[in-house]
Design a protein that fits this description.
Structural class of chain A: mainly alpha
Helix content of chain A: 55-70%
CATH superfamily of the largest domain in chain A: Tetracycline Repressor, domain 2
CATH topology of the largest domain in chain A: Tetracycline Repressor, domain 2
Number of helices of chain A: 10
Shape of chain A: elongated
CATH class of the largest domain in chain A: Mainly Alpha
Oligomer: homodimer
DNA sequence: TCATTAATAAAACAAGCGTTCATTTAATTC
DNA sequence: GAATTAAATGAACGCTTGTTTTATTAATGA
């Protein structure tokens, strides 16, 4: 056999991406074989090479897509006006929502950096830095205008990011806890962590979610 | 050739563990080959099998050792007396110190769980749960006696653990920042995060470090 | 209808994988 | 000094890996 009836390149490529994210998140990039991936898609291994020149190209593609989606997500969620507290809450809420929705993709991006070549690693880290800079800026400006009481904005940014990304490690939706409830608690913890003055605007962030 | 002059089983085994932790932390368990590991030790691949029946046995050994060392470390650092704030600070300080000292080992334990068999994974998670329970207990008791103001002690425990373990992701010793300085800041962030009443005993924890 | 292009199968490739085996040498014991 | 044990070698095994090549079929446009 060769080309199968009803086959469509775009659909196949999307199916490859999808299966790859799931398999790599579960077993790790090195552990997933091209044959295993092909079987999951329902295709022969050689067919994968029409869409991705190498296995690493596929990984890199997934990672770039994840980072660009993350940045785009924040750019559309970022509040036009509002104080530093409101901006911080918007950042945290958007970050948690995004990562819970893309648990597998996040795992790939966090665990498989070492499988990238030097230049590609740099490209991913550059995007990551661009994103994290948003949080650092919020924290620095909040510290300057007295909204927050923090020791070091760079360190605080790392602490917050690790804390809120960590949600995906233990949280599974469809349990007795909803994403909104978890977000609410993490928002409260974050605001205390940065020494924010009492905030009555707590629920504003989640209203549109 | 065969047995080499001055060869010693105990030393070789220790060298294997050491090289394995470093290689696996850097490249990942699946990516590290037995030949690569053997070369790092300065021995032939077959020699590794005198000490570890399979590659997975080696990984499991490293992980169990890490978890047992972590638990032992807390058991000897845990304060005999003192309120919940003091206990929480001792926990955080010990956790950060331990993990910074064993960055590679920590990475292996956090990243390679998926390469273990079901039973072995359970064994590791059991130890991990035993350790995390210590923090949950401190938080729960602190919430009950009014030392802390938290929403959910289990959730707060996860948030804190992810935050303080995350230090190893960005922190490199021998820079402009010492472990003690980082610990000090993380202690302050943690105490605010749990809504602890003002604590004047801040430096007590680090005095013996 | 017929050439063209897109999508896939099938088979092969060389390289590398974890692991085993028989053997050899160094250290230890009697 | 001979016998025994500990430590390691070197070659091989069967299998799998990522990838390439070649051939074949389905969809597309003139």
């Amino acid at each position: 056999m060769a080309r199968t009836a009803g086959s469509d390149g775009q659909r196949t490529e999307a199916a490859i991406r999808d299966a790859a994210v799931n398999l790599i998140a579960r077993h790790g990039y090195e552990a997933v074989t091209m044959r295993q991936l092909a079987a999951e898609v329902g295709v022969q291994a050689a067919a994968l090479y029409r869409y991705f020149p190498t296995k690493e190209d596929l990984l890199y593609d997934l990672m770039i897509a994840h980072m660009e989606a993350l940045i785009a997500s924040w750019e559309s969620a970022r509040p036009i006006r509002g104080g530093c507290s409101a901006r911080l809450m918007a950042f945290v809420a958007n970050h948690i929502r995004f990562h819970v929705e893309r648990r597998h993709s996040t795992h790939v991006n966090n665990m498989e950096l070492r499988s990238l070549s030097h230049e590609r690693l740099s490209a991913i880290l550059k995007l990551r830095n661009r994103y994290e800079k948003e949080l650092r800026t919020i924290l620095r400006e909040g510290a300057e205008d007295g909204s927050f009481l923090i020791e070091d904005s760079a360190m605080t940014a790392m602490a917050i990011i690790q804390m809120i990304t960590g949600v995906i490690v233990w949280f599974r939706p469809d349990e007795r806890l909803s994403v909104d409830e978890v977000t609410e608690t993490y928002l409260a913890m974050t605001m205390r962590l940065v020494g924010a003055a009492r905030h009555s605007e707590k629920t504003h962030v989640l209203e549109r979610a």
